[in-house]
Design a protein that fits this description.
InterPro entries: DUF1156 (IPR009537), SAM-dependent_MTases_sf (IPR029063). By secondary structure, this protein is an alpha+beta fold. It has eight helices and ten strands. The protein has two domains: about 150 residues, no CATH class; about 80 residues, no CATH class. Strand 7 and strand 8 form a beta hairpin.
Length: about 300
């Protein structure tokens, strides 16, 4: 202990919580440009909250500097100014307001001896803290044990900052935009299309057009995979799937489930039903079709059995 008192931070005296909460709630309805649209991740922190709380942690309360703000009135006036900065920073549409963030960065510099502290988040997750630390001018460090989080943070934070201002390098059009990370974005779009086309050439035949009940065609974008076993009934040893549930969607108004239909020859076809009266358990399944669910010990999967 040195006996030297630590300056009180703005977060220790008060912040404009109502505005921050309102903007954090509104952020959930925004879609354009938000990092949450890059990739879904668990428990993403609202950027409005992250940005303003970081600022309040890095900036001293005016009462900590009586040499600059000698009277209570001067301290209150400066505190109001800082709160107004936070309220403006909380608004997502102000993210590109250069003057606003110059003022915020200057406030951080004034509270930290002319330098902005590095910010470390050892469990960065969706990257909200390092991203907003960068926005405030800090050198951000983020890490995570989850490889998905690492990829998100590299794509969101590391690569744009490393290649900011660089031209694109792909051999396509002659557009070479140096503005911010446009060159990197152009490269990602170019090579993303290239990879998509090559992938489609290899596996596109596995995703054919299918018709719905109204006869309209749709492109298959994914398959639901299930392990299969041979039906133990020796009279009909066909492959049958092991599934946890026949439901595809239980969202109200958009219910969908798979109905296995056993033909007279012992084969099984699968129909997609759009109704809320899908199978609710093994007994319900018995009543609806010629199959029954069987639990094998602790195994939560169900086995389709056909008996003639």
């Amino acid at each position: 202990m040195t006996g030297e008192s630590r300056p009180r931070k703005l977060i220790e005296t008060g912040i404009p919580l109502s505005k921050i909460n309102a903007e954090s709630a509104r952020e959930k309805s925004l879609r354009h440009g938000l990092p949450s649209t890059l990739h879904l991740y668990w428990a993403r922190r609202p950027l409005a909250t992250t940005r303003t709380i970081l600022f309040a942690q890095l900036v001293d309360d005016p009462a900590s500097h009586p040499e600059r703000f000698a009277t209570t009135e001067e301290q209150d006036a400066e505190r109001r100014r800082l709160h107004e900065l936070m309220e403006r920073m909380a608004v997502w549409e102000n993210r590109d307001d250069a003057e606003l963030y110059r003022d915020a960065e200057q406030a951080i510099l004034d509270s930290n001896g002319g330098r902005i502290p590095d910010v470390l988040d050892p469990f960065a997750g969706g990257g909200a803290i390092p991203l907003e630390a960068q926005r405030l001018g800090a050198h951000a460090h983020g890490s995570d044990l989850n490889p998905l989080a690492v990829i998100i943070n590299k794509a969101l934070i590391e690569f744009p900052s490393r290649f900011c201002g660089n031209e694109s390098v792909h051999p396509g059009e002659d557009v070479r935009d140096r503005n911010r990370a446009e060159g990197l974005a152009d490269d990602i779009r170019y090579y993303g299309r290239l990879l998509r086309d090559k992938t489609f050439a290899q596996v596109g035949h596995l995703y054919p057009k299918v018709k719905d009940d109204q006869g309209a065609e749709h492109t298959v974008i994914a398959w639901i995979w299930a392990r299969t076993v041979t039906n133990p009934n020796p009279a009909n040893p066909i492959p049958v799937p092991l599934v946890r549930s026949w439901w595809l969607s239980k969202k109200k108004g958009h219910e969908a489930w798979v109905k296995p239909v056993v033909s007279d020859d012992g084969s099984i076809r699968y129909e997609v039903q759009h109704s809320a009266d899908g199978p609710t358990g093994d007994e319900e399944g018995d009543r609806q079709s010629s199959w029954r669910g069987v639990h094998r010990g602790w195994n939560p999967h169900r086995l389709l059995l056909y008996t003639r």
